[in-house]
Amino acid sequence: RMTEKVLDTFKNIRYKPGLQIWTINNLKMVPVPEQAFGSFFEGDCYIILYGSNDDTQSMDIHYWIGNGSSQDEQGAAAIYVTQLDEYLGGSPVQHRDVQGYESAKFRGYFKQGIIYKKGGVASGFKHVESNVYNILRLLHVKGKKNVTATEVEVSWKSFNSGDVFLLDMGKSIVQWNGPQSNRGERLKGCLLAQDIRDRERGGRARIGVVEGDREEASSELIKMMISVLGQRTGSLRDAVPDDTPDQFQVSHVKLYQVSDTSGQLMVQEVASSPLTQDLLHSEDCYIADVGGLSLAVWKGKKATVEERRAALERAVVSVYHCNSNEIIHLQFANTLIHVVQGRHATQDEITACAYQAVNVDNRYNGAPVQVRVTMGKEPRHFLAIFKGRLIIYEGGTGKPGVVNPDPGARLFQVRGTNEINTKATEVPARASSLNSNDIFLLKTDLVTYTWYGKGCSGDEREMGKVVSDVLSKQDKQIVMEGQEPPQFWVALGGKGAYSSDKRFEREVALHSPRLFNCSNQVGQFRMTEVAQFTQDDLDEDDVMLLDTWDELFLWIGNSANQYETQESYRCAVEYLKTHPAKRDPETPVITVKQGYEPPTFTGWFNAWDSHKWSGGLSYEEMKSKLDDSGSVTQITMVCDPFSLSTD
């Protein structure tokens, strides 16, 4: 119940954009430091609160259950989630995620991948901090889209020919790619290795890559692996296929009603697929069972408190009462060094920046935490440093042969609603860069125009004023969309088409856009939703479906096969026909090819990078980048495997 003690537990918890994570320690909620986000101990349970970055300020509450967690911890997490939902007004969507079976939405919070760590909070949580090298572990990396890394026995017996493995020795990380692993899996392995280096080691670790089918080309790294794992005997195990549900499971849905109208709380099956919206009544709660793969709990607005509380509990494990409801606040006093990489930075500049970061780190005796920040992926704590005043410019200084944009006309896209999520990004100074959903600043020689798109909110306008004052001390002129003076269009090189569909004029969209990956790489054609999507989620090996409600876009990657392209269109039509909201079957389905995206497509992505497809790093380029930043000699010099322990 919501006693004073329970209220005190949540007194510092409120909506804010991004993630807030707690672990259950002795049946109490303990906050997890941000540098540990994405790493989960198998013996623990976690509570994750996600606040959307848009004007809806919607929230999702997840509780994650490790395979080795106790029943008491699971019960405590379930009760905390129910109470937290009530404390936040009942508006959050609740989710229950189990290790190895996380939802697409949950995985979408951790784009670089999820790491499963052995042990539990009692034995290991205090060691989750940056700049720790006393570690020896082997991570089994699986998945191309949704990457997970599980700690396995540090032995050749754990390897197989189809997956990627990371041998983490603290100061050195060796990535071993199975001969049958694909390019996408290898690239994800590289990204995860970099994430471990930057987030857990403060940027101070070397990474080397071994191709399993060409081990002779990395003889020094193989020697290092043998010194830790011993001599390999026998052949590797065959590849382990990913667990994928069959079509029957996905389409076989049952609906259960949770009601106490009879005077006793009852759960009974009321329907099976296909389900229709009129089956749901606001006086009750319902549980939808999707083929035994996932459960969705729907809570009616007029349902009783007992029904609302019982709905999620009846969907899972027995629930146990926790003995206390007390929150522990951990204080973290870290010095941070942010290594910021521009979208078009050269390898020489990246290397020089990393070198300078080490110099600064040495001045503080290795105490700071190094954080690598990539343009477009700025973490919330980084944006908060600038209090809504961060401006990202195109061009650069000191690049040979690079001509900076004409200072007479520069255009900046402003996105954000408060001091901790706002930034301005320079975009090409032309009409096609505009978007009715956002605010843009056009800086000319004489005046700075603040352009308000019809879909921007009052909070966004306030932050636009803040950024405008930072950008220029010139005269300011506010321009409403549709009322632009001639000089405005002259500065942009003339009028032109841009994302100005009526959908962009709504301050709060009636329907949020959804992105789906369409692929047959697992042997069967599947559509999988991508949560918290960005331009980086567009996979050139596949077809992607973007649902903006009024239109469906089929984005065709350059390497997508013909079968995927054909099946995607058929599935798009079927998607409309079977949508529970009774979508218009005549909704346009628009095919877009990679590199030729129209403004009506790019407008749904923040700070679209038109140069991405020519400038994005392939796996081979990523591997070369790692080789340049840390040679084999450097890696072997910093690694002394015999001095490492697994304590």
TrEMBL record:
<dbReference type="InterPro" id="IPR029006">
    <property type="entry name" value="ADF-H/Gelsolin-like_dom_sf"/>
</dbReference>
<dbReference type="InterPro" id="IPR007122">
    <property type="entry name" value="Villin/Gelsolin"/>
</dbReference>
<keyword id="KW-0963">Cytoplasm</keyword>
<feature type="domain" description="Gelsolin-like">
    <location>
        <begin position="336"/>
        <end position="383"/>
    </location>
</feature>
<dbReference type="GO" id="GO:0015629">
    <property type="term" value="C:actin cytoskeleton"/>
</dbReference>
<protein>
    <submittedName>
        <fullName>Villin-like</fullName>
    </submittedName>
</protein>
<feature type="domain" description="Gelsolin-like">
    <location>
        <begin position="422"/>
        <end position="489"/>
    </location>
</feature>
<feature type="domain" description="Gelsolin-like">
    <location>
        <begin position="28"/>
        <end position="107"/>
    </location>
</feature>
<dbReference type="GO" id="GO:0005737">
    <property type="term" value="C:cytoplasm"/>
</dbReference>
<keyword id="KW-0117">Actin capping</keyword>
<keyword id="KW-0106">Calcium</keyword>
<dbReference type="GO" id="GO:0005546">
    <property type="term" value="F:phosphatidylinositol-4,5-bisphosphate binding"/>
</dbReference>
<feature type="domain" description="Gelsolin-like">
    <location>
        <begin position="268"/>
        <end position="316"/>
    </location>
</feature>
<keyword id="KW-0206">Cytoskeleton</keyword>
<comment type="similarity">
    <text>Belongs to the villin/gelsolin family.</text>
</comment>
<dbReference type="GO" id="GO:0051014">
    <property type="term" value="P:actin filament severing"/>
</dbReference>
<feature type="domain" description="Gelsolin-like">
    <location>
        <begin position="146"/>
        <end position="213"/>
    </location>
</feature>
<keyword id="KW-0009">Actin-binding</keyword>
<dbReference type="Pfam" id="PF00626">
    <property type="entry name" value="Gelsolin"/>
</dbReference>
<keyword id="KW-0677">Repeat</keyword>
<dbReference type="GO" id="GO:0008154">
    <property type="term" value="P:actin polymerization or depolymerization"/>
</dbReference>
<dbReference type="InterPro" id="IPR007123">
    <property type="entry name" value="Gelsolin-like_dom"/>
</dbReference>
<dbReference type="GO" id="GO:0051015">
    <property type="term" value="F:actin filament binding"/>
</dbReference>
<feature type="domain" description="Gelsolin-like">
    <location>
        <begin position="527"/>
        <end position="601"/>
    </location>
</feature>
<dbReference type="GO" id="GO:0051016">
    <property type="term" value="P:barbed-end actin filament capping"/>
</dbReference>
